[in-house]
Amino acid sequence: LPEYAFIGRSNVGKSSLINMLTDRKSLAKTSGRPGKTQLINHFIINDSWYLVDLPGYGYARVSKTSKKKFQKFITNYFEKRQQLISAFVLVDIRHKPQPIDLEFMQYLGESGIPFGIIFTKADKLKPMAIDRHVNEYCEELLKTWEEIPQYFVTSSSKHIGKEDVLDFIGNINEEIEQLKNQ
Ligand code: GDP
After folding, report:
1. What pTM did the predictor assign?
2. Each residue of 84-114: pLDDT tens digit?
3. CA of 16 to the centre of ligand 1 (A)
4. Of 19, 158, 179, 181, most Cβ neighbours within 10 A?
């Protein structure tokens, strides 16, 4: 089955987003201990695709060794996944573009892995501020990318953006099915 990977800095709202997308109240639980949960969780959605929950990155207080380990773990994942269709990088909509996220997108691009951006916690900003932050982000991306990746504005607490993300994935899966049946 096709896989879609979700990744982002710790505390970006990944567990909440996954709970929203999978209609579960509390399953993708955050561990209170950064760097502890180095496990990959798979959720099967509609019997048709896997949502892959990758551990959060960017803990300020972990050692160099565990940062290295983490990088290895993540690169191992991305190198091995035959079924991976796309990654989604989660970004807190309130924050300015962060080097660690931009570097990660760079890595995905260089590895030939398609990705989209999911802005989280949109309920924390007024609509005008959302537009401004998204535009600023896109401008930053255009410094290194020719095109702006697909992006989604979401809020797990206000249930915003769920259908956009699910429809996007559903459409790709349909295309894949059609190609298979040709
Ligand atoms: P993770 O570490 O990336 O899995 O992040 P969590 O999903 O555990 O969320 C981190 C914190 O942000 C928690 O306190 C959540 O309640 C909060 N949070 C997550 N999503 C949203 C959102 O859409 N809106 C608001 N206001 N807070 C959120």
Report:
1. 0.92
2. 999 999 999 999 999 999 999 999 999 999 9
3. 6
4. 19
